[in-house]
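Hey team,

Sharing the Acyltransferase run so nobody has to redo it. Sequence (429 residues) first:
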Amino acid sequence: MHSLQPPSSAQRPGASPNRLTLSVQRSFWRLLALGIQGSPSPHTRNRPAAPGGPEGLVPPARKTSCSAQTFLDCARGPGAPVGRGQRLRQASAQTSRGPTMKSVQKQWLEVVGAYQYVLTFLFLGPFFSLLIFFLLFTSFWWVSVLYLVWLYLDWDTPKQGGRRFEWIRNLAMWRHVRDYYPVKLVKTAELPPDRNYVLSVHPHGIMCVGAFCNFSTDVTGFSKKFPGIQTSMTGLGVLFHLPVYREYLMSYGLRPVSRQSLDFILSQPQRGQAVIIMVGGAQESLYAVPGKHCLILRNRKGFVRLALRHGASLVPVYSFGENDIFKFKAFATNSWQYLCQITFKRIMGFSPCIFWGQGLFSANSWGLLPFARPITTVVGRPIPVPQRLDPTEEEVDHYHMLFMEALEQLFEDHKESCGVPASTHLTFI
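Structure output:
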C-alpha cells in the first residue's frame, strides 16, 4: 500500500522539500478563516513597506476579500496603524512555518472574540427572552417554568452583590478581544485598598468596550496594577430583568446602576470597593462620533452625592479611542430624529442609534465588526471626599467642579500620547 508523500527535489527539480505541506496548510487556514479558495491577490502577497514610511506600513491596495494572511489587515481597515499581529507576521516571515501559522490563528481568534462581544451586547438578551417565551408553547414548557420560578426567587440578587466568577472574568477569549484593538490600561496614581472609590468612566461610546475589558475582566492586569481593589461595573437596571442575560452580566461582576445596588457595594465592611459608573450613560452614546470628545457631565451629579454619602474617593477615568471603533450617524439636537431618540430613552432607558463597523470578510463593506483602533483607558488620581450622610448642594457642586477639572486635566495630559491632536479639547454638555 503506497503512502502519499510530497514529491522530492529529485522528482521536481527546483522544488523546495515541504512545498506541498505548506500549500495544504495555507489552503486549510484560508478555508477555515474565510471560507474562500484560491491564492491571495498578487497585489497583497509579499508587499514591501511603503518607501520612506515606518517599517511594516503597507500601502493600501484594492481587494474585495481577505486571505488568511491578511485577515487582520482587512479588519483594521485601510490606513490603520500597524498592529501587533502584522509585526509578528513580518518578523516570522523568515523563520519556520510554526510561528507564522500560529500568528494566523491568533488573528482569527481576535476577530472572532471582538465579533462575539458585539453579538452578545446586542442580541443575547432579546434572544433568550424570546426563547423562554417560545418554549412555553412546546413540549419543553417546563424548562421555561423552572427558570421563571428561579428568576422570581433570585430577583433581588443583582442589587445585593450579585454573583461574580473569577474564572469567567479570566477566560482566554478576553485576551483575544484585548489584543484585537488593542485595549490598554494606564495607571497614573495609587489607589490604596484602605478606602472605597467611585470611578466615573468617559466616554460611554457605543458598547463600553474599554470599560468592560479593563474593569469586568482582568486581562489588562487591573488586579496587579491596583492590588486589593475589587471593581463592580454598573449597567442599566432593565438589563438585569432579561432572562439568562442577567446571569451573564452578574458573572462578570456587573451590578444595576441603582441607589440600592451602589449603597450595598460601598457599605461592605471590607474596604477597597470600587464602583464603575458610566456617568454619561445612554445619552452620551448619541455623541460617540469618531474624533469627537463630547461628555454628558455638566448636570450629572448623582455620582458625587454617592461618593459624599459614603466618603468614597472620586476617580476620573478616560478611555481614549472608545468613540473610534464604530462609525456613527449623529443627528442635530433640534432635529426630529434626535427628539425620537430622546423620547425612546425616557421610555426604555436607552437610546437607539445608527452605527456601523465593517464586514467580517471585507474592509470594503459595512457590518458589525468593530474597527481595530487602540483603546487606552487612563485611570486618574483619586480626589479625597469627606463623608456626609446628607450632603448640601454647595458641597455637591464643589466636588463636582473638582472632578470636572481633574478629568479635563487628565485628558490634556494624555491626549497626545494616545493619538489625539493637541488642538482637541473636551466638551462638557
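The chain has one domain: 111-428.

Ping me if you want the raw files.
A.
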